[in-house]
Design goal:
The structure is a single chain. The chain has 349 residues and is an alpha/beta fold. It folds into two domains: 2-234, P-loop containing nucleotide triphosphate hydrolases (Rossmann fold); 249-337, 3-Layer(aba) Sandwich (Rossmann fold), CATH 3.40.50.880. The protein is 36% helix and 19% strand. The strands form five sheets. A seven-stranded parallel beta sheet has the order 4-3-5-2-6-7-8, with helices on both faces. A four-stranded parallel beta sheet has the order 14-12-15-17. Strands 1-11 form a two-stranded antiparallel ribbon. Strand 6, helix 5 and strand 7 form a beta-alpha-beta unit. Helix 1 (19-32) runs parallel beside helix 2, helix 1 crosses helix 7 and helix 5 crosses helix 6. The relative contact order is 0.13.
Length: 349
C-alpha cells in the first residue's frame, strides 16, 4: 500500500558541515509554527536523535539500513510519522558514505528507498566556484540523487548573495538560505560525535536561537513545499509474533553513562510483551525489583568510571544476577562496564 507522507532528508558532503544544526533549527522552527514534525536519523547514530528528542519531547527514531531492511525502514518511517505534519530525516556522514566505497546503507541509499527529497547542507565560508563544483558532483554522481536544494552553513549575509547566484547558475538547484556563524550555539564533540543532549544545560536556549535564525535566513516555506512534493511512501505492514505472557520485566540501564538505544528497539520489546524498568548504574543501589533480564546499552562509561566504581552495591547486584543465570545483553559501553577493570578517560583504572 502507499501512504502520503511529506518528508525531507537533510544531508551534507561529509561530517561537521552542520546537518544537526540545520535539522534542529528546522525542527524547532516548525514546532514554534505550531506544527508537529517527526524526526529521524540515518544509520547507527545514538547521539543526534537525543537532540531531536530534546526539542520535541518525543523519541527520535533511527532508520538503519545496515541492521534492518529497506522494508523495515519504510515501515518505521510511516509508523512513527503517520500522525505528524512532516518527517525530517537527518543523514549521517557524507551523502554517499556507507559500507566501504559501495554506498550501501548510506544516506543516499535511505533517500532512494524512501523516495525522500534531499536538501544538501554545505559549509559556505571557505570556497566560491569550487563549492558549486562540489555540489554538482554530488548531484550527478548518481542519476537518482534526488537533490532538491542547498543550504549554506557558516556563511555571512554578504557572502551568501554571491554564492547563491553562482551555485544556482552552475547546478540548477535552488539555494534555500543560510545559517551564519553562531558561536553561542556551538556544541562540543568527542570521539563518538557530539556530547549528549543531557550534558548541555542551556540546550533549549541554544535551539531557540537557532530556530529564530532559521526563520530569518532559511526559506522554510519552500522546504515544506519540497517535502509535500515527495511521492507516496510504499508501506508494507510487518507481522509480529504474539506477545509473551506474564509481562517479564527487563531492566534497562539509562543514565548519563548509558544512553545509546534505538527507541524502536525498546518499543519492540514492549510490543512483544516485555515491561521495561529503567535504572541508573550510577545512582541506584540495585536492579529493579522482579526483573528477569538486563539490557546494558552503549554510552560513555569511561567518562563516569569514578561514579560507576564507587557504586559497589549496583555492581554487586548485577554480578549476582548474572551469576544466577539472569539473561543479560551488554553492548559497547555496557559490555565494558561488565569488565573487572576499565580505564577511564582520565587514564585511571
Amino acid at each position: 500500500m502507499y501512504k502520503n507522507l511529506p518528508r525531507l532528508l537533510i544531508t551534507a558532503p561529509a561530517s561537521s558541515h552542520g546537518k544537526t544544526t540545520v535539522t534542529c533549527a528546522l525542527l524547532q522552527a516548525l514546532i514554534q509554527r505550531g506544527l508537529e514534525p517527526a524526526a529521524f536519523k540515518s544509520g547507527p547514530d545514538y547521539i543526534d536523535p537525543m537532540f531531536h528528542s530534546a526539542l520535541m519531547g518525543v523519541k527520535s527514531r533511527n532508520l538503519d539500513l545496515f541492521l534492518g531492511s529497506e522494508r523495515l525502514a519504510r515501515n518505521l518511517l510511516w509508523e512513527n510519522a503517520a500522525a505528524s505534519s512532516l518527517a525530517v530525516i537527518e543523514g549521517a556522514m557524507g551523502y554517499y558514505d556507507g559500507i566501504a566505497m559501495s554506498g550501501e546503507a548510506s544516506s543516499y541509499a535511505l533517500a532512494r528507498c524512501t523516495d525522500s527529497p534531499v536538501i544538501l547542507v554545505v559549509q559556505g565560508n571557505m570556497q566560491e566556484l569550487s563549492l558549486a563544483a562540489e555540489i554538482r558532483g554530488i548531484q550527478v554522481l548518481r542519476n537518482d540523487s534526488n537533490l532538491k536544494g542547498v543550504i549554506l552553513n557558516q556563511t555571512t549575509a554578504s557572502y551568501y548573495s554571491l554564492l547563491k547566484e553562482g551555485i544556482e547558475k552552475e547546478t540548477g538547484l535552488p539555494v534555500l538560505g543560510y545559517m551564519p556563524p553562531m558561536p553561542q550555539c556551538a556544541v562540543e564533540s568527542r570521539h563518538l560525535g557530539l556530547v549528549t543532549a543531557a550534558e548541555i544545560r542551556d540546550l533549549k536556549d541554544k535551539m531557540a536561537l537557532l530556530a529564530g535564525q532559521a526563520e530569518k535566513t532559511l526559506d522554510i516555506d519552500r522546504m515544506m513545499d519540497i517535502a509535500c512534493q515527495a511521492p507516496s511512501l510504499r508501506y508494507e505492514p510487518m507481522q509480529l509474533p504474539d506477545p509473551v505472557p506474564g509481562k517479564p520485566v527487563i531492566a534497562v540501564a539509562k543514565d548519563l553513562a548509558f544512553s545509546f538505544y534505538y527507541a524502536d528497539t525498546l518499543t519492540l520489546l514492549e510490543k512483544l510483551g516485555a515491561s521495561l524498568a529503567m535504572f541508573s548504574p550510577l545512582k541506584d543501589a540495585g536492579l529493579p525489583d522482579n526483573c528477569t533480564g538486563i539490557l546494558l546499552g552503549g554510552g560513555y562509561p569511561e567518562i563516569y568510571t569514578q561514579g560507576l566504581s564507587e557504586n559497589a552495591a549496583m555492581r554487586q547486584s548485577i554480578r549476582q544476577a548474572i551469576q544466577k543465570g539472569m539473561p543479560c545483553i551488554a553492548e559497547c559501553g555496557g559490555f565494558l562496564y561488565l569488565h573487572e577493570k576499565l580505564e577511564g578517560s582520565d587514564g585511571k583504572m
